[in-house]
Design goal:
The chain has eight helices and 20 strands. The chain is an alpha+beta fold. It folds into two domains: 4-233, 3-Layer(aba) Sandwich (Rossmann fold), CATH 3.40.50; 241-359, OB fold (Dihydrolipoamide Acetyltransferase, E2P), CATH 2.40.50.140. Helix content is 23%, strand content 33%. A hairpin with a 2-residue loop joins strand 1 (4-13) and strand 2. It has helices at residues 42-50, 92-102, 107-120, 136-148, 166-183, 194-200, 218-223, 228-233, and strands at 4-13, 16-26, 31-35, 57-62, 65-66, 77-80, 154-158, 186-190, 203-208, 211-216, 240-248, 254-258, 264-267, 280-285, 296-307, 312-317, 324-328, 339-344, 350-352, 358-359. Helix 2 (92-102) packs across helix 3. The structure holds adenosine-5'-triphosphate (ATP) and magnesium ion (MG). Residues 42-43 line the site of magnesium ion.
């Protein structure tokens, strides 16, 4: 259980800079999740930490020690990949103990560690099987077991669940959460999956094009995104983002004209920053922020209805405007083509400047 620090870490492949001055302080025992669009550098960052790629500039410090030039095998890390990469000719027990055997550990101690890990992962009945006789979830558990037996100071996971079907993913996600509660090993976990990121992380690191956009607890990122990118990335379905133009009302208040909502004017509440007339901004509102009451109301036509059982998502629009996603708890009777009036509280809106930075209330 070590803390881990990245100081101005950059990585280039040839002339292309893939990671740009990444700074991150991971506390001992923390569960950190890297998220970001495909190609943003998540795996590369993990591989730099693991020592599978060389750091171009900056420092990696694990447990107070500079690790840039330390051999991967001496960094005290264990990595679990998307492809489990099990040896097909070895049993589960042999697969799990292989790295220890390779390191010259006595047989009795290997067996003890493998059995302890197998107990944690419910693999005891499968120890004598070969990988081909295992389900996807069981194989993934063996891959995790292989990492556990090494008793690493830091676990690194690169999309470990993305080869599993939906049900198994949920199951393994919960297993990984339990494992972390039990072992309390510092963990860095890469995923594309919103729900995995939100549910597993103590803190999420949002990356875009090799730059850290925001670091924070899942709910901090959800409730208080630093910019338009994070606002649009965290949350599923996504936050609705609509272009708007500031208008000063006759009473001297700031309002927003929303072209996608038939030029509806929404007067901003006190405490919202005053915007100059004509300033172009983006307005954000999450699907669940629409409610039966709220001073702003507008009429939409429903395009698509998604019934999930407990919740319904309506995709609706005003004339030819952008589709707006509305979450309804009581939405079972809605049908495509129906008209609907949605309301929201203007105080709940998120505002973003033309450069994507957040315009905060009271600033
Ligand atoms: N060995 C390499 N040589 C050159 N470019 C590379 C190399 N490895 C990765 N890249 C590039 O670095 C960028 C980041 O890749 P990386 O695999 O870290 O992305 P990622 O965020 O993990 O994406 P994904 O979500 O698709 O797995 C990509 O543009 C990729 O093409
Ligand atoms: Mg990747």
């Amino acid at each position: 259980m070590s803390d881990l620090k990245l100081v101005d870490v950059s990585k280039s492949f040839g002339a292309v800079e893939i990671l740009k001055k990444v700074n991150l302080d991971v506390k001992a025992r923390e569960f950190i999740v890297f998220v970001g669009p495909s190609g943003c550098g998540k795996s590369t960052l993990l591989r730099l930490i693991a020592g599978l790629e060389e750091i171009t500039s900056g420092e990696l410090i694990i447990g107070g020690e500079r690790m840039n030039d330390v051999d991967p095998s001496h960094r005290g890390l264990a990595m679990v990949f998307q492809s489990y990469a099990l040896y097909p000719h070895m049993t589960v027990e042999e697969n799990m103990g292989f790295a220890l055997k390779f390191a010259g550990m006595p047989k009795a101690e290997i067996r003890e560690r493998v059995l302890a890990a197998a107990r944690i992962l419910n693999l005891e009945p499968l120890l004598a099987r070969k990988p081909k006789a295992l389900s996807g979830g069981q194989r993934q558990r063996v891959a995790i077991g292989r990492a556990i037996v090494r008793q690493p100071k830091v676990f690194l996971f690169d999309e470990p669940l993305s080869n599993l079907d939906a049900e198994l993913r949920v199951h393994m996600r919960i297993e990984i959460a339990k494992l972390h509660r039990r072992l309390r090993v510092t963990t860095i976990y890469v995923t594309h999956d919103q729900v995995e990121a939100m549910t597993l992380a103590d803190r999420i690191v949002v990356l875009r094009a090799g730059v850290v956009e925001q670091v924070g607890s899942p709910l901090d990122l959800y409730d208080d995104p630093a910019n338009l990118f994070v606002a649009g990335f965290i949350g599923s379905p996504k936050m609705n983002l609509l272009p708007a133009v500031a208008v000063i009302t006759a009473a001297g208040r700031t309002a927003l004209r929303l072209p996608d909502l038939g030029d509806t004017l929404v007067v901003l509440p006190d405490g919202t920053p005053r915007l100059d007339e004509g300033r172009a901004v983006t307005v954000g509102i999450r699907p669940e922020q629409f409610s039966a009451n709220g001073s702003a109301a507008f009429d939409l036509t429903i395009d698509i209805v998604e019934h999930l059982g407990g919740t319904t998502f309506l995709y609706a629009r005003k004339d030819a405007g952008t589709a707006i996603v509305v979450e309804m708890k009581e939405g079972r009777t809605h049908k495509p083509g129906d008209a609907i009036t949605v309301r929201f509280d203007p105080a709940a809106l998120y505002l973003f400047d033309a450069d994507g930075s957040r315009i905060r209330a009271g600033v």
